[in-house]
Design goal:
Elements: E1 7-13, E2 18-21, E3 27-40, E4 46-58, H1 59-68, E5 74-80, E6 84-87, E7 93-96, E8 102-109, E9 119-125
Antiparallel strand pairs: 1-3, 1-5, 2-3, 3-4, 5-8, 6-7, 8-9
C-alpha cells in the first residue's frame, strides 16, 4: 500500500538561510524554522512550547529561499520528512527522525495579512531533485 509523506509548517526563521553548492554544482539552502503552540495547563497558566525544524531546500527553490527569506520572517513551508542514519566514530549507528523536511514550496506571509492568513507571494513552487 502506498503512503503519504507530507509536512506543512508555518513558523519563523531562527536564522538567515545558508546557501552553498554541492561538489556537483547543485545549490542547497539550510535554515531553521520555529513553530510554537500555546495552551493553558491544569492550573490555568499559559504554557508555550517551541519546536525547531531544520529545513533543506535544493536547486532553484534553495536559491530563492536564500534570496527572499531572512531571520524572523514568517513562512509557510511544505515538503516531506526524511530520516537520516549515520555511524559515529565508535561505529555506533545513529539516526534522527524528522531531521530535515525537504522543502517543496514556500510562501512568505506578510505581517499585515497574517491575521487573514493570506499568502502574499509564492516564490518557490517546483519539484525538487536530489543530488
Amino acid at each position: 500500500m502506498a503512503g503519504v509523506n507530507k509536512a506543512i509548517l508555518v513558523g519563523n526563521l531562527g536564522r538567515d538561510p545558508e546557501l552553498r553548492q554541492t561538489p556537483s554544482g547543485q545549490s542547497v539552502c539550510n535554515f531553521t524554522l520555529a513553530t510554537s503552540e500555546t495552551w493553558n495547563d491544569r492550573n490555568g497558566e499559559r504554557v508555550e512550547r517551541t519546536e525547531w525544524h531544520r529545513i533543506v531546500a535544493w536547486g532553484k527553490t534553495g536559491e530563492l529561499c536564500a534570496q527572499y527569506l531572512s531571520k524572523g520572517r514568517t513562512v509557510y513551508v511544505e515538503g516531506r520528512i526524511q530520516t537520516r542514519e549515520w555511524e559515529d566514530k565508535d561505529g555506533n549507528k545513529l539516526f534522527t527522525l524528522a531531521d530535515k523536511p525537504k522543502l517543496k514550496r514556500f510562501c512568505e506571509y506578510d505581517v499585515l495579512d497574517r491575521v487573514a492568513g493570506k499568502m502574499l507571494r509564492s516564490v518557490g513552487d517546483e519539484e525538487l531533485g536530489e543530488p
